[in-house]
Amino acid sequence: MNLSLRLPFHKRFLAWGVLFSAGLSTSMAQVSESNILVFEHFTNASCAPCAQQNPTFQGLMRSNPGKATAVRHHVSWPGLDSMYLANPVDPTVRVNYYGISGVPALRLGRHALSTGMGQSTLETWYNVTPANWIYDLDTRLIGVGDPQVPDSVEITGSVYSLATPDSTNRLVLFLAEDSIYFPPPGQPGGGLPGSNGEKLFPMVLRKMLPDTNGITVGSGAVPTTIGFKYRLGNRWRIPHLYLTGFVQNTVTKQVHKGFKLQLGNSIHTSVEDEALIGNPWKVYPNPASESCILEIPSKAEMSNEEWTIQMTDLQGRTTQILANQISFLGANKVELDLSNLSEGLYQLTISSSQARTTYSHKIFKTNP
User: Fold this and answer.
1) Of the N and C termini of the chain, which has fewer Cβ atoms inside 10 Å?
2) CATH 3.40.30.10 spans which residues of the chain?
3) Residue 323 — φ and ψ, nearest 5°?
4) 192-241 pLDDT, tens per residue?
5) Nearest to 220 by CA among 335, 299, 136
6) Which residues contact 316 (CB under 8 A, 6 or more apart)?
7) Rounded-to-integer distance, Cα 255 and Cα 245, Å
8) What is the pTM of this model?
9) CATH for 26-268 (3.30.70.2190, 3.40.30.10, 3.40.50.970, 3.40.190.290)
10) Strand 68-74 relative to strand 32-43: parallel, antiparallel, unpaired?
């Protein structure tokens, strides 16, 4: 698709550097987190070193909300672990995938750590982990046996990327319960799950969804539709269940930043495209359905240059956007009507009249 727009002199811009970013609304902050690190923490309730290190690691997770979370895989060694016995298959698949041979162990895809993690390491891993996938998911609690009594979760939505260089990717989803408490022996319902003395276990893996294979999502240029139901365990506490996950390259084991979502809620993460660093133009919302806004900071100076805006779809098809589809919202904003465009990924390019300056954004057009 190719479209161009020449801005009148009084609505031309001289841009300066801004980092494009988008996040969740404040109302979603308590039930979801996006663009976060999702660690896989391998542990065992009879592992003495685990009991020593786990509280420190959990404290690190609590002090980094909106930046990191961890799902706990309880393994079969060195001794008894009732959480492993409740689901031996799924954690074993991840053990074999990474070749875990001892606990405690921590993985963030291809990054591994067998000792305690500190804030500096977390910051390093956070900075090197890409955040270019959008998780547009809805989790709805439903009653299969009795419509009035929720006993299952229905997960729908889509997953796609605005900037992914590889194609062997899978969406890995974990259903976790946060937290599981075991009263000490002698108390009602008492009896610890292992021999290391731990009583409280956060974000325990209950099930990989829809199965241990995950969902093939390819390069993400074309959205992958998500739609399945899963029956929850009878003893699982629904208010404490979270869906968390990430996209992972099955060959390199590289993971992208993921999300954490309390069941019964929705999440729509946005992409922080590394190519946009220093780009003075903001494009939002992204993805967009009816329209999008192009904006530069209000402190920008006026320019004598004219700007050309071009959008190119993946097939190279062109559609003319007429002048009446373009609205000026102020000295530094222009709204572009996208209602006549087909759903898909587009490259939006903004260049000066003399082609001395060019900025580029990827934008995904969705159906209303």
Assistant:
1) C
2) 26-268
3) -60, -35
4) 999 999 999 999 999 999 999 999 999 988 889 999 999 999 999 999 99
5) 136
6) 1
7) 10
8) 0.71
9) 3.40.30.10
10) parallel
